[in-house]
């Protein structure tokens, strides 16, 4: 089911100078929501910028849906300026989210604002049947970490600029941990370079990984073909898949990354 209409903002919380959590009323017509799905949100009532902004779901319950928005440009800035009590226009849930498979050993990897949908995922994974490890990487100070800390057995936090956290890349911890832990499923979301390295490492290790791909989107429903990526068609050919319609979740074994 895809809802296209208005919903009221019921809560707003700045968690960093440029990162805000916005919760809206969960309208019944939205139907089922799956972690990893997103909504296309109109930035302002004035209709500028014209294109809606695709924002992943970072949490939901029976009454609310929460988005974590990083202010990166004019659209997300206007979206962040909405106040509690105002209504926003949005469409969703859109795309294919994560497949929550039964697995004893699970690893979650998030980078940057890609941490937000991973929060939505870990809150919905079966507990306590899964033993969950988490690796998160940030440019500056980490955020949303409490949601992971209370739900995982092991947590590694990386920051490029803030002391007191590990320096380097999340893939360093990944390469360390897969040597000693037999993960049955890995979930990851973050910058393209991170996902490329994660997929390569886990494909070579024979460990399944679900990647939540990020790309600029326009329509959000697969019509404009802006957000395509290469995926395997067979052993010798590839096809262009639409991240918003065919994804944004793809298995690491099916995505073809361009080499830089």
What's the layout of helices and strands?
Layout: E1 3-16, E2 19-25, E3 38-41, E4 53-60, E5 64-70, H1 74-80, E6 87-94, E7 105-111, H2 115-122, E8 131-138, H3 145-149, E9 154-159, H4 170-177, E10 185-189, H5 192-205, E11 209-212, E12 228-232, E13 238-242, E14 249-251, E15 255-256
Parallel strand pairs: 7-8, 7-10, 8-9, 10-11
Antiparallel strand pairs: 1-2, 1-6, 2-5, 3-4, 3-6, 4-5, 11-14, 12-13, 12-15
Helix pairs in contact: 4-5
Biggest sheet statistics = 6 strands, antiparallel, barrel
CATH superfamily of the largest domain: Nucleotide-binding domain of ferredoxin-NADP reductase (FNR) module
β-sheet strand percentage: 35-45%
CATH class of the largest domain: Alpha Beta
Q: Class by helix and strand content?
A: alpha+beta
Number of domains: 2
With helices defined by DSSP (H or I, 4 residues minimum), what is the helix count?
A: 5
Lateral strand order in the biggest sheet: 1-2-5-4-3-6
How far apart the termini lie comes to 38 Å
Uncertain spans? none
Helix content: 10-25%
Order of helices and strands: EEEEEHEEHEHEHEHEEEEE
């Amino acid at each position: 089911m895809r809802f296209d209409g208005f919903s009221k903002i019921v809560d707003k919380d700045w968690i960093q100078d440029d990162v805000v959590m916005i919760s809206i009323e969960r309208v019944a017509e939205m139907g089922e929501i799956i972690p990893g799905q997103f909504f296309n949100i109109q930035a302002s009532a004035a209709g500028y910028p014209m294109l809606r902004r695709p924002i992943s779901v970072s949490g939901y319950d029976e009454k609310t849906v929460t988005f974590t928005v990083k202010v990166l440009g004019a659209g997300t800035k206007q979206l962040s300026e909405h106040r509690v009590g105002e209504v926003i226009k949005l469409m969703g849930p859109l795309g294919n989210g994560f497949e929550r498979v039964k697995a004893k050993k699970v690893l979650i990897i998030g980078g940057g604002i890609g941490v937000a949908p991973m929060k939505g995922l870990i809150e919905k994974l079966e507990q306590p049947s899964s033993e969950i490890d988490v690796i998160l990487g940030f440019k500056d100070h980490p955020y949303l970490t409490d949601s992971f800390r209370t739900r995982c057995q092991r947590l590694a936090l990386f920051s490029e600029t803030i002391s007191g956290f590990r320096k380097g890349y999340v893939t360093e911890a990944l390469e360390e941990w897969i040597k000693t832990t037999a993960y049955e499923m890995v979930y990851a979301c973050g910058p393209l370079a991170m996902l490329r390295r994660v997929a390569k490492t886990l494909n070579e290790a024979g460990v399944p990984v679900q990647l939540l791909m990020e790309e600029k989107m326009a329509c959000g429903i697969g019509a404009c073909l802006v957000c395509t990526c290469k995926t395997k068609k067979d052993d010798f050919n590839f096809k262009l898949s639409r991240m918003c319609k065919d994804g944004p979740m793809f298995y690491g074994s099916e995505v073809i990354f361009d080499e830089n």
